[in-house]
Specification:
By secondary structure, the chain is of the alpha/beta class. The protein folds into two domains: about 130 residues, Lyase, Ornithine Decarboxylase, Chain A, domain 1 (Beta Barrel); about 240 residues, TIM Barrel (Alpha-Beta Barrel), CATH 3.20.20.10. Strands 1, 10, 11, 12, 13, 14, 15, 16 and 17 form a nine-stranded mixed beta sheet that branches. It has an eight-stranded parallel beta barrel with strand order 2-3-4-5-6-7-8-9, surrounded by five helices. Helix 5 packs across helix 6 and helix 8 runs parallel beside helix 9. The chain is globular and about 70 Å long. Bound molecules: pyridoxal-5'-phosphate. The site of pyridoxal-5'-phosphate has 16 residues, from helix 10.
Length: about 400
């Protein structure tokens, strides 16, 4: 299929494998949990409508962080009651849209959001279900730039700042949920369980008087490593979760993003030039950080496959054509000898790949293709040059 795709489509393009996504979903849905649970796909990982519709058809809900993600999720067919809205910087527009759609829960991360949701809901004759994202002050032991559960960060609210009694007096909101998300790429299940423990204890304490918390939203973060082969031990994680929630009656939500789609995605790119600079061999491809930002953002190398028959190895930096020295896709990687015109693919880029792409340097955002066994279809066409001018006024 690779040859056919490369003949039919110009690079760069993303290719996703539906089978891999379905396997990830089935695995999570088949876990032997002894409590009520639902998985909500973190839309930010890959918001393509075809991917959203695929996960929706497999009994997943959606987790969104903007009006745009909410709009796309509704368009992809999610029931509003299967959508939760997180995010540390929701605008009034975001909140009004989420309130009028009457989604499952708006998880606030700033206490001021509650008064606004209350007033706007009352003005519309509605009562809105809310959650509070707690900052549990737990180190996810992952990359520093993707840790979100430590005190001192911008995410969530510290427990000691919340006055649950006064929230209970608001007539336009109903506090049903406590949520958290301590980071991404987590492979140490102990850190996850410790953060869940904090939420369970807090919910038990609140319910001893107010009896309002029905749902605990444990976030996502299940590790799929592209810089090591460490993995989350799901068996231990599941067993400890069952133990933690024994004799409890909370509905449990999870918000995995990367785990569902990362491994399904490949990014195909063509080698434009091979050059030597000092003691470095540098490959310039037709893919840049505009199409795939994570290596530049996090200093990580994705797994790379070179589509040629060379047996000799060389060490390369792989860069794009953007006028920024941070525009690298990988550094110091040992690969089969590469020549101009070769094709390269980046692996495990189905999450936070296309969704983080931009049109910087006025580059069209890339094509996306979804394959299912021997069949494939375009699920996002490449931006045209005219698209790059859309919404601009001369
Ligand atoms: C609140 C929240 N939930 C879930 C996720 C998904 O994380 P992951 O893709 O690592 O599973 C994120 C990622 O940033 C998030 O911020």
């Amino acid at each position: 299929m690779t040859e056919k795709l490369l003949q039919e489509f110009s690079t760069p393009f993303y290719l996703y494998d539906e089978e891999i996504i379905k396997n990830k979903i089935s695995f999570l849905n088949s876990l032997d949990f002894k409590f009520d649970f639902k998985f909500h796909f973190a839309v930010k990982a890959n918001p393509n409508l075809a991917i959203l519709n695929l996960v929706k058809r497999h009994n997943f809900g959606a987790e969104v962080v903007s009006a745009g993600e909410l709009f796309k999720s509704l368009k992809a067919g999610f029931d509003p009651m299967n959508i939760i809205f997180d995010g540390p910087g929701k605008t009034e527009f975001d909140l009004k849209y989420a309130i009028t759609q009457q989604i499952r829960s708006i998880n606030v991360e700033n206490l001021e959001e509650i008064a606004f949701i209350n007033e706007y809901s009352l003005s519309k004759g509605l009562v809105t279900n809310i959650g509070i994202r707690i900052n549990p002050d737990i180190d996810a032991k992952t990359l520093d730039k993707i840790t979100t559960g430590k005190s001192g960060g911008k995410f969530g609210v510290s427990i000691d700042q919340i006055d649950f009694d006064s929230i209970a007096n608001f007539k336009g909101v109903k506090l049903t949920t406590l949520s958290e998300h301590i980071g991404s790429q987590i492979v140490d299940h102990i850190q996850l369980i410790s953060s869940y423990q904090k939420l369970v204890s807090l919910a038990d304490k609140i319910n001893s008087s107010l009896k309002t918390i029905q749902t605990l939203d444990f976030g996502g973060g299940f590790g799929v490593m592209d810089h090591s082969d460490k993995k989350l031990n799901f068996q231990d994680w599941q067993n400890e979760l069952n133990e933690l929630l024994k004799a409890k009656s909370y509905n449990i939500l999870f918000e995995p993003g990367r785990y569902i789609v990362a491994d399904s995605g490949e990014l195909y790119t063509k080698v434009l030039y091979v050059k030597t600079s000092g003691n470095k061999r540098i490959i310039i491809t037709d893919c840049s950080f505009s199409e795939y930002l994570r290596p530049a953002l996090y200093d990580i190398n994705p797994p790379i496959e070179v589509l040629n028959n060379s047996n000799d190895l060389d060490t390369y930096d792989i860069a794009g054509g953007i006028c920024e020295s941070t525009d690298f896709l990988a550094k110091d990687v040992s690969l089969p000898k590469i020549k101009q015109g070769d094709f390269i693919k980046l692996l495990n880029v189905g999450a936070y790949g296309s969704s983080m792409s931009s049109t910087y340097n006025s580059r069209p955002r890339p094509l996306e293709i979804l394959k299912n066994k021997e069949e494939y279809r375009v699920i996002r066409s490449r931006d045209t040059l005219e698209d790059l001018c859309k919404n601009e006024i001369m």
